[in-house]
């Protein structure tokens, strides 16, 4: 074995814990007279000089890593490493070392390291993280590929491999080897280079990206990635980037650095999107640095463009120019569209800076001019840009819209143009309408509206919208549900009619409108409620339940469901008076026994009413539709509504009985009090009479006077004595005037003097001297009813009102 030699690279560990290459040579195990034992001897391939002479002592730990590395330490921080080009050579030398130390060659470490755990652990960590690359040659490509793939699971080894690739200009050597393989048509070598380059990209190191994506290297990197072993034939990506991908300058770019950065970003983005595999859900950080590299480039491009004010002013000037050709205008708009798309991937600060610049330069007036063009591509690009601007600053867009109302007609307002673009979208799938709907949703969302002590953006903009724009937005809904278009006999026959709800494109548009109206019910409570009631919008929406498109019926149901969820009695009374549950019940019956989304949506609506126990709606549904719905027994919803209804009726009946009992007790109590007070008054009168001293029988003068008075008192008046009759009528009137009066609190108030007739209880009931101890509101109600009987009768309000 002493005469057998193997090719190796020799490395020594320096003070910075990095491996330095001492050279390449031939290693052998020989008996050394100097050490009086076996040693490892490495002679240089170039001049035969000794690179390494190392004794193999019986107690030194040797470590075998993977299949080609043998590592050991001769002193502290003095590590040596042999990197074999042939695994068989590594195995033979390892057997020689184990034989000297008396160890089994199957072990990975020749000595027990438990005596000094801390030092040995540090040693083994350095050894385990060792990365050594062979010379960059055709014969070593397999070994290089194995090393690159093996380090991906270890962050430390990845870092050390990246340092070697950077410091030794290894990537440039690999790319030179790529040209050699292409010239020799060495397919296996090209496959190995594809694997190596993809592994280097997977290291995710920005220092390597700077080298690989430089102007000198990037096309060669693309070339290596073309030779995927999984493909039958390599893809010609370099031809596409060099010949097919054209760089258009809307305005000549004089900044060479900016041009180079744009080219680099496009090519790196192409590599990321086309040539590299899509990371799985378990590889969140896969190529994250490459993504960061692309974003950094985009941020630099945007920063350079923002600083070049002359360039942006020239672009806007051509957009505003009426003489600009449509193709040219389209190119300019696509340029801004790409800028805005760049901004979405940037940090908020960079993004805000770009969109702020565009807004200040007058992008909104330009968009208003462009949106009315006939070119579909131009309008589509304008919609994308508008969406970006609204997402960036909806308040600024609202401010611009409101300011227009002072100088423009309603039809020319920016927001009404947006609505018209949505309504008039010619795409069968309404892709543009969906895009514009997102813009409207953002503008109408109160959650992103500002409120300050000086003004409320919410009230100002919503008042403006419902006054100037809402009629334009709901026009398709009102047209589709007009009497001409909504007659059942005509629905099937007019499928091709644009305003018919059965027309597929119209149905999709109506669905979008209903979705936004449903959003408005939730967030614009006061404004949308007034509009719904004034336009009877729910009735018109429920007409759409006759449509053949189930998704449109579901949109109408969601509209009503959101209205009910507010539990607003104004909405509830509106639904009851308009009998708006009838089309819902009809839709349920027409659906039959089919268990589908429509069936579930309708049942959920009734179940919500039952669970929330909305009493007015429960009563209306049971009284109006229970006989029709009681046969539906596969859910307990309608029986539950009936139970709720009956319990409420019992509760109301019990309340009425309790009120009647209380009123009856009050009447009995009042009668008892009146009797007791009357007896007390009679008793006091009798006591007063007994207290008068009777006259003496021998007092002739007194008795005579008494008889005279008694005779006058019983003497009937003469029929012709008008004066006496007049006096009597006057006294009777005074008795009435002195009778007790009812106060505002319901009690009686007595005057300072009253007639004796009233005092002894012989007067009319109205003159009773009873003092009320309890207020009786039923007395006031009886008086009010008497007054109403005297006037013309009013129409009785609805039970639910």
Automatic annotation (TrEMBL):
Protein name: Protein phosphatase 4 regulatory subunit 3C
GO terms for cellular component: nucleoplasm; protein phosphatase 4 complex
Bias (Basic and acidic residues): 727-741
Family membership: Belongs to the SMEK family.
Sequence ranges of Acidic residues compositional bias: 778-789
Residue ranges of every copy of the PP4R3 EVH1-like domain listed in the record: 8-102
Residue ranges with Low complexity bias: 745-755
Domain Serine/threonine-protein phosphatase 4 regulatory subunit 3-like central: 143-646
InterPro entries attached to this UniProt entry: ARM-type_fold, EVH1_PP4R3, P4R3-like_central_dom, PH-like_dom_sf, PP4R3-like
Family matches, as SUPFAM superfamilies: ARM repeat (SSF48371), PH domain-like (SSF50729)
One Gene Ontology molecular-function label: protein phosphatase activator activity
Segments of this protein annotated with the region Disordered: 727-801
GO biological process: one example: DNA damage response
């Amino acid at each position: 074995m002493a005469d057998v030699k193997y090719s190796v690279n020799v490395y020594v560990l320096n003070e910075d814990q990095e491996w330095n290459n001492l050279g390449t040579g031939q290693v052998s195990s020989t008996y050394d007279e100097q050490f009086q034992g076996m040693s490892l001897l490495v002679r240089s391939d170039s001049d035969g000089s000794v690179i390494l002479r190392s004794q193999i002592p019986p107690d030194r730990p040797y470590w075998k890593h993977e299949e080609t590395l043998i590592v050991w330490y001769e002193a502290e921080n003095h590590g040596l490493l042999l990197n074999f080009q042939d695994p068989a050579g590594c195995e033979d030398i390892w057997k020689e070392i184990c034989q000297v130390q008396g160890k089994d060659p199957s072990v990975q470490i020749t000595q027990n390291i438990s005596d000094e755990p801390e030092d040995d652990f540090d040693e083994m960590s350095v050894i385990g993280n060792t990365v050594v690359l062979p010379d960059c040659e055709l014969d070593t490509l397999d070994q290089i590929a194995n090393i690159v793939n093996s380090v991906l699971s270890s962050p430390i080894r990845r870092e050390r491999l990246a340092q070697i690739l950077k410091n030794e200009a290894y990537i440039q050597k690999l790319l030179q080897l790529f040209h050699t393989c292409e010239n020799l048509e060495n397919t296996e070598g090209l496959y190995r280079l594809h694997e190596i380059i993809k592994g280097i990209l997977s290291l995710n190191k920005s220092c390597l990206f700077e080298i690989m994506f430089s102007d000198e290297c990037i096309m060669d990197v693309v070339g290596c990635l073309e030779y995927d072993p999984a493909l039958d034939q390599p893809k010609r990506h370099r031809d596409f980037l060099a010949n097919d991908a054209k760089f258009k300058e809307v305005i000549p770019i004089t900044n060479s650095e900016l041009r180079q950065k744009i080219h680099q970003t496009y090519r790196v983005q192409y590599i990321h999107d086309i040539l590299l595999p899509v990371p799985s859900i378990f590889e969140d950080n896969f190529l994250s640095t490459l993504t960061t590299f692309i974003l950094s480039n985009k941020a630099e491009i945007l920063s350079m463009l923002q600083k070049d004010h002359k360039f942006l002013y020239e672009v806007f000037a051509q957009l505003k120019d009426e003489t600009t050709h449509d193709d040219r205008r389209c190119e300019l708009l696509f340029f801004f569209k790409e800028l805005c798309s760049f901004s979405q991937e940037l940090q908020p600060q960079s993004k805000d800076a770009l969109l702020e610049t565009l807004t200040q330069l007058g992008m909104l007036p330009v968009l208003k001019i462009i949106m009315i063009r006939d070119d579909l591509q131009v309008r589509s690009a304008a919609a994308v840009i508008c969406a970006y601007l609204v997402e960036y600053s909806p308040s600024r867009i609202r401010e611009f819209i409101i300011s227009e109302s002072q100088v423009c007609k309603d039809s020319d307002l920016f927001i009404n143009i947006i609505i018209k673009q949505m309504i008039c979208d010619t795409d069968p799938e309404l892709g543009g309408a969906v895009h514009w709907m997102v813009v409207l949703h953002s503008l109408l969302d109160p959650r992103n509206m500002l409120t300050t002590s000086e003004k409320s953006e919410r009230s100002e903009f919503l008042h403006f919208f419902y006054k100037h724009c809402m009629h334009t937005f709901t026009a398709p809904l009102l047209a589709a549900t007009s009497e001409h278009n909504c007659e059942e006999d005509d629905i099937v026959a007019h499928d091709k009619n644009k305003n018919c709800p059965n027309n597929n494109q119209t149905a999709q548009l109506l669905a979008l409108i209903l979705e936004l109206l449903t959003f408005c019910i939730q967030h614009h409570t006061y404004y949308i409620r007034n509009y719904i009631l004034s336009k009877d919008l729910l009735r018109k929406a429920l007409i759409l339940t006759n449509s053949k498109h189930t998704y449109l019926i579901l949109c109408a149901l969601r509209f009503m469901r959101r209205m009910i969820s507010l539990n607003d009695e104004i909405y509830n009374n509106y639904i009851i008076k308009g009998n708006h549950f009838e089309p819902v019940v009809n839709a349920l019956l027409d659906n039959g026994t089919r268990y589908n989304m429509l069936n579930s949506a309708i049942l959920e609506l009734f179940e919500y009413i039952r669970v929330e126990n909305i009493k007015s709606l429960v009563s209306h549904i049971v009284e109006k539709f229970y006989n029709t719905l009681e046969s539906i027994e596969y859910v307990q919803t309608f029986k539950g509504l009936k139970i709720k209804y009956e319990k409420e009726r019992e509760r109301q009946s019990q309340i009425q009985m309790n009120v009647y009992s209380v009123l009856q007790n009050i009447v009995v109590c009042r009668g008892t009090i009146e009797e007791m007070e009357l007896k007390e008054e009679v008793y006091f009168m009798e006591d007063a009479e007994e207290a008068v001293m009777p006259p003496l029988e021998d007092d002739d003068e007194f008795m005579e006077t008494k008889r005279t008075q008694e005779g006058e008192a019983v003497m009937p008046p003469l029929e012709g004595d008008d004066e006496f009759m007049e006096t009597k009528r006057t006294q009777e009137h005074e008795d009435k005037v002195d009778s007790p009066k009812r106060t505002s609190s319901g009690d009686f108030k007595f005057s300072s003097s009253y007639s004796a007739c009233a005092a002894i209880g012989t007067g009319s009931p109205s003159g009773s001297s009873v003092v009320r101890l309890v207020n009786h509101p039923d007395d006031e109600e009886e008086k009010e009813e008497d007054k109403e009987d005297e006037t013309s009768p009013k129409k009785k309000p609805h039970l639910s009102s």
